UniProtKB/TrEMBL annotation:
InterPro entries, per database record: AAA+_ATPase, ABC_transporter-like_ATP-bd, ABC_transporter-like_CS, P-loop_NTPase, PstB-like
Native source species: Bacillus salipaludis
Keywords: ATP-binding, Nucleotide-binding, Transport
GO molecular function, one term: ATP hydrolysis activity
Domain ABC transporter: 11-252
UniProt record, GO biological process: phosphate ion transmembrane transport
Protein name as annotated: Phosphate ABC transporter ATP-binding protein
């Protein structure tokens, strides 16, 4: 008898619209995101990619004059309601930005920052969490002898992996990555990509990228955004070989303009 794998969804977005003042930035987005998969979001600058990813943990709320309608269901609960605990949401849905925004503290304190906020006080527990997070991002061997040195002394690639470790330290379900390798050299980029492939065994990952090759290498699903609309969402292999929409084909083949 053939077994059927049923994917539980981390997110189900239904008819999401977003405005910055009078500007309609996201238009009727319907978007399922499966657990323990990598979903890449591609599209030209200004198409709504970063705006969309910031709705998933409501970081978008920091932007003035934002209005949203529709549903963003995370684990079957619509987070677009006043009862949503934003601290808890952002603990479970972590975010890594384009540039490694390390804190002007030690390597250890950067990783321990989130757990301390969420009530972890005992030194032995913090040490366990920090060690595991650094091992998970393949940074432990590089920094284990200088955990109390300033994090700003790390290379750009190391700082980005440290930021990923900091996000993992709160034990999230989902990791959002907004162009995490755009400021990195090819070797550091490769390390981050290898890390993403390893992390998807444990985490749901959504990555915004301008790099078509990166999207094809690391993602299970790819979504193409254009002018605030989700044009196409499908298996990555299909998006890059037989897209359903001509606009998707034009974009990934470089004929878009």
């Amino acid at each position: 008898m053939t077994s059927i794998t049923v994917h539980r969804q981390a997110f189900q977005i239904n008819d999401l619209n977003l405005w910055y003042g009078d500007h309609h930035a996201l238009k009727s987005i319907n978007f399922p995101i499966n657990k323990k998969e990598v979903t890449a979001i591609i599209g030209p600058s200004g198409c709504g990619k970063s705006t969309f990813i910031k709705t998933l943990n409501l970081m978008i709320n920091y932007v003035p004059n934002v209005k949203m309608t529709g549903e963003i269901n995370y684990n079957d609960q619509n987070i677009l309601n006043e009862k949503t605990d934003l601290v808890d949401l952002r603990k479970n849905v972590g975010m890594v930005f384009q540039k490694g925004n390390v804190f002007p503290q030690s390597i250890f304190d950067n990783v321990a920052y989130g757990p301390r906020i969420h009530g972890v006080k005992r030194k032995v527990h913090l040490e366990e969490i920090v060690t595991k997070a650094l091992i998970d991002v393949a940074l432990w061997d590089e920094v284990k002898d200088r955990l109390h040195a300033p994090a700003l002394g790390l290379s750009g690639g190391q700082q980005q992996r440290l930021c990923i470790a900091r996000a993992l330290a709160t034990k999230p379900d989902v990791l959002l990555m907004d162009e995490p390798t755009s400021a990195l050299d090819p070797i550091s980029t490769l390390k981050i990509e290898e890390l993403i492939l390893e992390l998807k065994e444990k985490y749901t990952i959504v990555i915004v990228t301008h790099n078509m090759q990166q999207a094809s290498r690391v993602s299970d699903k790819t979504a193409f955004f254009l002018m605030g609309e989700l044009i196409e969402l499908d298996e990555t292999a299909k998006i890059f070989s037989q897209p359903s929409d001509q606009r998707t084909e034009d974009y990934i083949s470089g004929r878009f303009g």
